[in-house]
Write a structure and sequence with these properties.
- By secondary structure, the protein is α/β, with parallel strands linked by helices.
- It folds into 2 domains: 6-167, Rossmann fold (3-Layer(aba) Sandwich); 168-363 and 386-473, Dihydrodipicolinate Reductase, domain 2 (2-Layer Sandwich).
- It is 30% helix and 19% strand.
- The strands form 2 sheets. Strands 7, 8, 9, 10, 11, 12, 13, 14, 15, 16, 17 and 18 form a 12-stranded mixed beta sheet that branches.
- The chain is globular, with a radius of gyration of 22 Å.
Length: 489
């Protein structure tokens, strides 16, 4: 299927007068996409705000020199909820249900989107084509291929594109990573990211569900297949089905993926990846794993990511921890380790004695960092440029690809597959104990063991034997017209 071209987009989606960035042309963009308005403010549109996006509205509208001037969401109830807040303050804001109408507005400088994952790439590419800067929530993309298109669009149209990996703006984590890179704990041996968060069942339906009348389901679905709703809740639970979400590996776990890659200094993708896991503890309409282990075979410092959605033991709500961490990272070095994440952490010696504390601020300045880069027009000013976001999202996609190609396997088969990595073996044993505490016996209820997939970074595809063909097919998706990420941005 042919992707929508820039000309198609101009004819079908944008008003004829919208100026696009044309590198090398005499009409190339000034620092912003419009003639600067009153008080020289940066004007922002927020797209998608059922949850995280609502926070962005408040943050951006309270930054000096920034105004939120437009809101867009295909759910009219959610849209009204946020528009009413502006009315209460006697503050004008335009309202839309279709993001294409937002992009026609020449008076908008930047688009901030916390839409579902399957919309991230298209909104970003279209916004770049329309001459607008973008703050896009993590994960940057829904699949590998479209992440690369986001990078291409940002560079071609000279746009500032920040990914919502706010840990990169946390002053404590910044200081800790600098401390490690200065060699204070010796060389890095491995990095372990953990995301332990209770994920209850989303329930199971017996047939198609009615989409509420206040939601434009066509616009909500966008690039994904327009199929009947087969779960109780449209919102948020889209994370747990593959056409729209990426599971917790690509949801909150993507923060740990990004932290680990950043800490280890890996500027590319690993030579191999594999993943094992399952959806344990209940039977529901979710498709993605609630328990997952991924290994990224970087040299010399591999990355291990561990996701747990079940509690410490069946019947409780408390979660497990590893070295005191439930959501964060362990950076193991020769002479000690760091344990922490957003908000900071501690460095320890190898006997577990505290060495130094790093106090963070939660990355609360991430949006302000985006605005700073918008003003300077320097990509280097960004803490989480789209290229970094693409690479970290790519790790999530590669891990999920291995998992989706997996077969139910015994604990012995899993151990044999990961036997070359001591830390991964120890992690699997802890994971097996954790599942047993939730009355899940992996000898009776097998986990899905994904294959080791070899990655060619130059060709950006999987190479080698079985099941490379099927793995490469999962690197991109078929798009539903007219919501198509273009081949040529």
């Amino acid at each position: 299927m042919r992707g929508i071209t820039r000309r198609d987009f101009m004819k079908g989606s944008l008003a004829a007068g919208v100026a696009l960035a044309m590198p090398g042309c005499a009409t190339s963009l000034s620092p912003f996409s419009r003639v600067r308005g009153a008080n020289d403010d940066i004007r922002v549109a927020v797209v998608g705000f059922h949850s995280k996006g609502a926070q962005h509205i408040g943050v951006f509208d309270n930054l000096d020199g920034v105004r939120v001037v437009a809101l867009c969401d295909p759910d009219r109830e959610i849209l009204k909820r946020e528009v009413d807040k502006f009315k209460e303050r006697n503050q004008k804001v335009d309202e839309y249900t279709d993001v294409r109408k937002v992009l026609e507005d020449k008076n908008i400088d930047a688009v901030v989107t916390a839409s579902p994952n399957h919309w991230h790439a298209l909104i970003t590419v279209w916004a770049c084509q329309a001459g607008k800067d973008v703050y896009v929530e993590k994960p940057a993309s829904h699949n590998f291929w479209e992440g690369r298109k986001m990078v291409e669009a940002a560079r071609k149209y000279k746009r500032i594109v920040q990914v919502g990996s706010q840990n990169r703006s946390d002053v404590g984590l910044q200081a800790a990573i600098q401390y490690i890179r200065e060699g204070n704990l010796g060389r890095i041996l491995w990095v372990h990211g953990l995301w332990f968060k209770l994920r209850p069942s989303i329930g199971k339906v017996s047939g198609p569900q009615q989409v509420p009348s206040h939601i434009d389901y066509n616009l909500w679905t966008g690039p994904a297949p327009l199929v009947p709703l087969m779960r109780k809740n449209l919102h948020y639970d889209w994370h747990w089905v593959w056409p729209t979400g990426n599971g917790d590996m690509g949801n909150l776990g993507t923060h740990q993926v990004d932290d680990c890659r950043w800490a280890a200094g890996h500027s590319g993708l690993p030579r191999r990846v594999m993943s094992v896991g399952g959806r344990f503890g209940y039977i529901d309409d979710g498709q993605t794993p609630n328990t997952q282990l991924a290994i990224f075979d970087y040299k010399p410092a591999p990355i291990i990511i561990e996701i747990r959605g079940l509690p410490r033991e069946k019947g409780l709500r408390q979660m497990d921890h590893y070295r005191g961490i439930r959501s964060g990272n362990i950076i193991q070095c020769e002479h000690g380790y760091f344990a922490g994440g957003r908000g900071g952490g501690w460095s320890y010696d190898n006997e577990g004695k505290k060495i130094r504390q790093f106090v963070g601020d939660g990355g609360g300045g991430h949006q302000e960092n985006f605005i700073k880069a918008m003003r300077s027009r320097k990509v280097s000013d960004l803490n989480a440029d789209i290229l970094e976001g693409h690479l970290s999202a790519a790790l999530c996609h590669l891990a999920n690809t291995s998992y989706r190609l997996g077969q139910q396997s015994s604990p012995e088969q899993i151990r044999e597959t990961i036997q070359g990595n001591k830390e991964a073996l120890e992690t699997f044993e802890r994971l097996q104990t954790h599942l047993a505490a939730n009355e899940v016996d992996l000898k009776k209820m097998s986990a899905f063991l994904g294959p080791w997939l070899k990655w060619d970074s130059e060709r950006e595809k999987f190479v080698g034997g079985f099941p490379t063909r099927w793995a490469n097919e999962l690197l991109r998706r078929d798009y539903r017209r007219p919501f198509v990420v273009p081949e040529k941005v």
